[in-house]
Amino acid sequence: MRLYSNTRRAAAPAPDFLTPDGHLIPRAIGEAALRDSKAILIGDLLVLGTPDLAATVSSRNSW
């Protein structure tokens, strides 16, 4: 008889984020950057930075 079969196991902690250049970003900082639109996820990689608004506007004018 297994006495521990009904015990709950703790959930595994969420992993940290990895940037394209190999840096590990703590989960809380990565989530805050995503919420504030300071980063995006591409696959499993966290890409930090803000989009270049001038490039976006100029590309729309070329349509």
TrEMBL record:
Descriptive protein name: Uncharacterized protein
Source organism (scientific name): Hymenobacter coccineus
